[in-house]
Amino acid sequence: MTVVRRAGVALTTLGLMGAGLTLILGFIWAPTVDPEAWNSPEAYRILYWHVPLAWSSFLAYCVLFIGSVAWYAKRSELGWRMICTGSELALLFGLGVVISGPIWGSAEWGVPWDWGDLRLNTYGLLTAVSLFLVLARGSQPDGQGTRDTIAAIGLFGFALVPVTALATTWYQERHPGIVIIESEESGLAPEILTLLMFGFASFLLLFAGFAILSDILHRMESRLSHLQHQLDEEAIH
Predict the structure, then answer these.
(1) Which domains does the chain have, with CATH numbers?
(2) Of 51, 96, 156, 210, which is least surrounded by CB within 10 A?
(3) Distance (Å, rounded) from C-alpha 212 to C-alpha 187?
(4) Of 144, 132, 147, 66, which Cα lies nearest the Cα of 94?
């Protein structure tokens, strides 16, 4: 357990350092974009956090999905811990997306949110689902019925992921499409693509560190609950 905890702390530290460096490079190294194509060209720099946060939140929903399937298939405690960890990380990274996105939207569009945009609304629903899962787990008594309900909602949340990911391909309103800046080689300016990938790698390390530490916490909670149950039974007898 100690080795795993140390690995979680190390990954979290590296991820935080990388995320901080991504933010700095986004301001001092990343190139400017075409001012003719953007209403607020400097505001685009927040996307170096916004995009990796969104990708990381989708990974969290994958963890939630795997956990939900494992819970329904075998009533696996590992599956339940994955549901808990996946929903918490989905909420954490999702909140980062819905906070950073409107900041950019206010500068670029003049409004923080466009209720007519499919991707914005489906992602907002995704974040609301993760919030519900976290609140439900904390407010409802633990038991098979509660876990079944939360797992079912987790499966519904994951079903929204491909809809959200492909929304700008099916129906593009204001949200930028998959290709943000066009070039002949890759669809992205090389410096911008490099920094986006570095940002994603940093947030991936952060995601892994948080996932490890969250699983340790939930494992400890499970043990504490089991010990409390044993003490209650001994007190009765």
Answers:
(1) 2-236 (1.20.120)
(2) 156
(3) 35
(4) 132
